[in-house]
Amino acid sequence: MFHKLKDGRSLSFLVLLLLFMCNSCFLFDAASVSDENPKQREQTDSSKNDKDFQLQMIKDPFIANKTRQAEPEAQKTQYSGKAVAIPAPQFQKSTASDAWMPQFLQDTLTGHFASFSGMTVLDRKNEAVVIAEQKLSESGYYSADNAAAFGQMTNAEYVLTGSIQKLPTRYALSFRVNDITTNEIKASFDGQYGMSDIENGNAVKDAVITLLKGLDITLTKTQIAHLTNNRSAINATQRLAQGMAAEKEGDFITALSFLTDASEGGNNEANTVISAMLSISPPTNIREQAAYYKTQINKWNKIWEDVKNYMNYNYPILVYDFDPIKMQTQVSSSGNHVTVKWEKGIKLVPNRKVLVLYNTIAEEWEKIKSNRDNNWISQVYTFNGVTDYYIKIGIYNKYGELLTTDDFSWGSTYWYNRKLRYKNEAVPPQFRLFNDEHFRTVAFSSIPINDKFIEPLSVRIIDFIIDFIGFTKDKPKDNKPLPILSLQEWESYLNSVE
Asked: Which of 93, 117, 356, 392 has the fewest CB within 10 Å, making it most exposed?
């Protein structure tokens, strides 16, 4: 029909037609957007916002290095659908230093079997496992020899039992997997390991590889590497076990110290245990309330007394730098004496681990205080600051003979300006706590230049102790050691905690 229109009218019509087509395209696109799922749009916007936020964030290296590797997805095997119960290995003669070992081995075996065996794992938190362990231990015959009874109590087709035997310098570990239906030992493992190989997961790695091989399950190189590569998870599992072992012994502060480490390592169970240790649940009966108040008063007074001692002996770390290259000397005008000094000689650094523990307890205490019904809190004496410290440093000649000393006292005035409570925020990373403190000058004045003055010179920390009665040279000493690190040792320590 275009040939019937005049040229001018044809051109106008074509322009209008093109505008109509463009407008239709726009409307179609808008309709497409409006038809999009609102959740999808929300996710898209959220992803964009997250991306923008991450670009502005500066990662805290302490948190970054604490990130745990993802656990591998549970693989399917010929045992899929079967259940295996894993009780704690038996340890007859444990001490405070290794009482954590059974739970640590139980938890690490549980994690690896859950990932690689294909079986449903009944762990120590499973009610049936708890009841079975209690009943068998009460009867006096809970050992690897009664796997069948354990399996029947837990309805598990397989049971992984174990034992730990302490040798003079090592530990003998023994594990076996029993088929309850046939009473057959399907797999077994025996080995001897030092403490370090148990702590770093090598012992469990060897046990898991051998036990799974006995069950005709072969791990790939990647799966084997995963058994020990996830160091943060292994450390957190160990700290959890150490904390729970200390709690059983009634050592609250040691328990909380380990548990806060586990929590920061990503172990969620540690948070639950901490909360259970510090939380309260008052009874309704009046007589029971009276007894409960006394129990809480004694409990929290002990906690705060232990906190005070723990803070006093662990909060400050003395870091020194007596590098000979940084030594400055000034000979007197008479030539008879010399002053030797280091401008940046020593500093006291707050221990982040101690601050985390203190803030964990303080936060729970503030929750208790906020409840008006807890009127017993007035009978509790809380921690009110770090104590004073006395430092004595000596300079020695070539033969280790003392030439003179320099003394320091870090008093309550210094600590008063140091932040202890971090409310609604995380405790700063250890490197920042170090950077925020200033080095103090160490100067040895008027050293006689006589026959005893024989170079090279060396410097030692003679005393770093709690100053109970103020700054006096003839003071009684508390010989309990406080943490002292050279600058080089500090850098190694920093790498280990961050």
From this structure: 93
Eight-class DSSP state of 188: E
pTM confidence score: 0.72
Peptide bond into 324 cis (omega under 30): no
Helix (H) or strand (E) holding 294: helix 286-314
CATH superfamily, domain 83-229, is TolB, N-terminal domain (3.40.50.10070)
Per-domain residue ranges of the chain: 83-229, 316-497
- Structure-token pair, residue 351: 């221990």
Half-sphere exposure at residue 211, Cβ-oriented, CA atoms within 13 angstroms: 31
By the 8 A CB rule, do 386 and 317 touch?
no
Q: Which two tokens stand for residue 109?
A: 């075996």
Burial class for 60, CB neighbours closer than 10 Å (0-12, 13-18, 19+)? middle
Tokens of 453: 């003055």
> 335-354 b/e with 16+ CB inside 10 Å = b?
eebbebbbeebbbbbbbbbb
Pairing of strands 337-350, 402-410: unpaired
Q: What is the mean pLDDT of each run of 10 residues along the chain (498 residues)?
A: 43 46 43 41 39 31 44 71 88 88 95 90 77 63 60 80 92 92 90 95 95 92 85 92 92 92 90 87 83 91 92 93 96 95 95 93 91 90 86 96 93 72 92 94 96 96 80 54 93 83
